[in-house]
Amino acid sequence: MVKVGVLALQGGVEEHLSLLESLPEVEASPVKKQSELTKLDGLIIPGGESTTIGRLIEIFGLKEKLIELGKAGLPIWGTCAGMILLAKEILGSGKNHLGLMNITVKRNGYGNQLASFRTEVEVPAVAEESLPLVFIRAPYVTEVGSEVKVLARIDENIVAVEEKNFLATSFHPELTTDSNFHQYFINKVNAR
After folding, report:
1. pLDDT band at residue 117, thresholds of 50, 70 and 90?
2. How many angstroms separate the CA atoms of 118 and 64, rounded?
3. Which of 42, 109, 111, 185 could connect to 4 by a Cys-Cys bridge, CB 3.0–4.6 Å?
4. Which position among 16, 97, 172, 182 bears the catalytic label?
5. 147 catalytically annotated
């Protein structure tokens, strides 16, 4: 049984928990405290509002622990806002949040809430069939470091990346009924 937490400060927490609980051999739990972080085999940072989640991470005293655990190899997956939180660089901003992944992201890359969309894309590393992807005020990656593997693009925009123990997606797999990305993350957790 692997223990996967979902950072439960703001955003799509319940949807991630629900999809995780549908997978065999996974125990999912919401995480708000430092003490809960140390009991995990993997962590998901959900979509939401990246600036708000970034502030709450600091208010709840989680920032340093998240950076420490990430650098020590804890598998961490950031979806949408979570991708922004993991990025070393945010275009147009002089600071980052956790700075764990060697990627540069563009916030609201596809525009505002009205520019949200749904599409299907092939992500060969994750599944054999096309996957439904939901984008809501989504960021995308504009630059990647040498160790970053690009998993998916839409047009020329990078929307899914992996680097060591980190996974980041621009979209919200938790807002579909498809569990392929969650299973991919669990496989990453199990491989550790």
Report:
1. confident
2. 35
3. 42
4. 172
5. no
